[in-house]
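FW: tagging you since you asked about this chain on Friday. Here's the raw sequence from the shared folder, copied in full. Didn't touch anything.
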Amino acid sequence: MKTRRSQKALLGLSVVIVSVVLLASEAFPWGWGVHTYIDDHLGTDRKLRNMNEIYGGMAPDVFNYMFSYLPFLSNQTHGDYKTGESHFMKVWDAAKRCGQRSLAFGFVSHNDLWGADFTAHHQCITCGPALEKGYVTAKADELQASLTCVLEAKEIFLDPAVVLDIAHEMTEAGIDLLVKRTLDPRVGQKIVSSSLFRSPGFPFLLAKAFAADLADDAGISRSEAAEIIVSAERDFRKLMVLYGTALLQDEATALRLVSEQLAAVAEGYLAANGVDLPEGLDLVQLIEFAIGVSMEICADDFADELKKTTGFVRQQLKIHGVTYD
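HL: got it, structure written out here
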């Protein structure tokens, strides 16, 4: 009974996590489990600093649920691949004390220009030079084809772009589950611990880095912008505790929870796009199947890609002068 109540609470509360990522479909990064794995192997082995690096590595997604400001803040925290603007370095430049430096180290490692997200979005390392796509993008394309066939067999006809959005989200979820299965069974605990024990000054570091530009872009005062940023980080920290707790479950339970979360969000997402699902469709089962397919697609080469991505990011951090030990 207690386990069932816990799982139900996780489902209800962490639906927000999945809706954040699914609706913020302009970017498809590595999942938070992957960023945890990468940052756990990048910098220091000192426990508190390492936890700060892990939390910092997830934190560029802190504004993903702020839809009013998302396009602007996403560019600020991840960088603009088209223009090459590296706004995320403001966090590194603003970090002065040791706890801030370890958080900023992780934060910068995430970026879309030459950080971990570069290999997810733009250039897969293990796929060969002929494939000019990121690993997640390439795998989501594969899943989209399978997913489209299954959906159409059930008389669900969606815009290909919508199917691709869903395929990206399922690919990210599948890879996080593979990280838990193959590379680090304790990845969920590391997400929880890093979120609980991150240095308390981090939200103010984010405000110092981004409040002025957010104020100018949104036409609000700097104090209002700072309040928005601090509040967003507080909510994100709670979401990471919930997400990590989900990954603490056994694989079958974690897969089921994630599928239920996605189903709850997908119904609203599809309804908002004018799509009526067939009566009696078991959407949870369908999504669970699709995540399972994504895991099969990625199982043979994801670990090599993550290990090489870690080496790539480590090298890029040194090239860009991001070091504090």
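FW: The CA atoms of residues 142 and 197 lie 38 Å apart.
HL: agreed, and Residues 222-247 form the longest helix (26 residues).
FW: great, closing this out.
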